[in-house]
Amino acid sequence: MTHLDRILVQTRIALSQRRSPDRLRELERMAADHTPRGFAAALRTAAKTRPAVIAELKKASPSKGLIRPEFDPAWLAQSLERGGAACLSVLTDEPFFQGSLRNLEIASQSVKLPCLRKDFIVDEFQIVEARAHRADAILLIVAALTDAELKTLRAAAKAAELDVLCEVHDREELARALDLGCEMFGVNSRNLRTFEVNTAEAEKLAELLPADAVRVAESGIGSAADIQRMTAAGYNAFLIGESLMRKDDPGDALAALLKPQLVAAE
């Protein structure tokens, strides 16, 4: 089994253990209390004047292990907002990334920035969970889903008024995703089967992404030069996690990362 296969098996097991009619009704009541804040719109607005960064709250990963031992989602969210993030991404997978829905809820309540639920979404129940815990967008990973599942989950997210970041890794996955009409397309330079990072394919894929969608470069971005290179390739938004989470103050690190771009734009 690949890394992705193992994660998906565990995701479905955990989902079966917490899903019930009573829990669904409770989540639906919670979801009604949250008005989505327009994740894709926030990225479009930010991209007019500066690199639109989705800053990711990430405690650990299967490939790197523990990334940030001291993990305060409220403080991290506020720090990243202060540092210039346009949006946040919050890991909610527990077994492999040490995330949680509670982290998502706390981070979202602590800032004005729209938040993405970063997880392996395989069921409509998880979309209700996302809005109930104050997410404004979800991630759909093409490599993890069939065409039928992608279509169903995209429709469910739209009904829940949540934007969708549709993640692909290669031309074949992009071809499967183009007709979904997602607000955002992300190209992940990290192979989810091996966890190796290679940005070359992402640079080639940029020109094939829908011109009217937010085009997000994911993984392997840790410097101003990386942002400049991906901007030149055709991306207008950037998901950055590990390189920020390893800094004492991620917001200060993000501000320093963005400064050369802001100076150049003046």
Explain briefly what this protein structure is.
The protein is an alpha/beta fold and 266 residues long.
What does this structure look like?
With 266 residues, the chain is α/β, with parallel strands linked by helices. The protein has a single domain, classed as TIM Barrel, CATH 3.20.20. The protein has 12 helices and 10 strands. The strands form 2 sheets. It has an 8-stranded parallel β-barrel, surrounded by 7 helices. A two-stranded antiparallel ribbon has the order 2-3. Helix 4 packs across helix 5 and helix 4 packs parallel to helix 12. The chain is globular. The chain starts with a helix and ends with a helix.
| Continuous helix count | 12
Radius of gyration: 17 Å
**Strand line-up in the sheet with most strands:** 1-4-5-6-7-8-9-10
Oligomeric state: single chain
Helix/strand/pairing class, anyone?
alpha/beta
N- to C-terminal separation? 50 Å
**Low-confidence residue ranges:** none
Roughly what percent helix?
40-55%
Largest sheet: 8 strands, parallel, barrel
State the CATH superfamily name.
Aldolase class I
Shape descriptor: globular
- The mean pLDDT is 94
Report the CATH topology name: TIM Barrel
Q: What's the architecture in CATH terms?
A: Alpha-Beta Barrel
CATH class equals: Alpha Beta
The count of DSSP E runs of length 2 or more, i.e. the number of strands, is 10
